[in-house]
Design brief:
By secondary structure, the chain is α+β, with helices and mostly antiparallel strands. 44% of the residues lie in helices and 17% in strands. The strands form two sheets. The chain has a three-stranded mixed sheet, covered by helices on one side. It has a two-stranded antiparallel ribbon with strand order 1-2. Helix 1 packs antiparallel against helix 3 and helix 4 packs across helix 5.
Length: 222
């Protein structure tokens, strides 16, 4: 939606909201003002305060006004915020205005992050506002990777791609890492096996045979 269409939609919504508020207030406090406009409702609108017919009419028109008012407020907020877009404005283009599709950004993230060692699959989710972008990466890795080091590597790769190569501003990055299962029948690597609390068992020292005792030393007395 271009700027003109957006401005027209905002003006229409503001007009509906203002008309609804004015109509409800006039109906509640000066219901007789509607008599010339609604001749067929003159009997009900001209009734005195507290009349059952007037109360029913006020309730009906108030509900109708709220039905128009609440969706208009929601549409207005969505139109003003515009949190999700199909294209992102590039910031580092002097003298011109350029836009990059979110699909192109997602494809670039898949290409560069998937090329990292230990990464099996990556699924990006983007949320852009203007030239600011929020990125969520669902990354599947092999089970033997160092999670902390791999997270740092993915973060650096994503930031360099978004800010340096594409000229965008990375606002928030969320990385969700999960591993592929270990192959069936594969044992746990020796370096990952738990060590007993009292430490590894000590090697038994080689025992030398005791020297033979001479016969005379065995029985020193005759």
């Amino acid at each position: 939606m271009n700027t003109f269409n957006r401005a027209a939609m905002i003006l229409i919504l503001l007009g509906i909201i203002a008309s609804t508020i004015i109509g409800i207030l006039a109906l509640l406090f000066v219901p007789s003002a509607f008599v010339p406009l609604f001749s067929n409702l003159a009997g009900r609108l001209g009734a005195s305060q507290g009349d059952a017919r007037l109360r029913d009419l006020q309730l009906e028109l108030t509900i109708t006004g709220l039905i128009l008012f609440v969706p208009s407020i929601i549409l207005l907020l969505l139109e003003l915020r515009r949190t999700a877009r199909d294209s992102i404005r590039i910031s580092k283009v002097s003298g011109s205005e350029a836009h990059l599709s979110t699909q192109a950004v997602a494809q670039s993230l898949i290409y560069y992050v998937d090329a990292l060692e230990g990464v099996v699959r990556v699924k990006p989710r983007l949320q852009a506002t203007g030239k600011v972008i929020n990125v969520r990466l669902d990354v599947q890795t092999t089970p033997d990777v160092d999670v902390r080091a791999k997270t740092e590597q993915i973060t650096q790769t994503t930031r360099n791609l978004i800010e340096e190569r594409l000229g965008l501003k990375l606002n928030r990055l969320h990385i969700h890492i999960h591993h592929t299962p270990f192959p069936q029948g594969a044992g746990v690597p020796a370096m990952m096996r738990p060590v007993p609390a009292n430490g590894p068992p000590e090697r038994e020292s080689a025992r030398l045979p005791s020297p033979a005792v001479p016969a005379e030393k065995q029985n020193p007395l005759p």
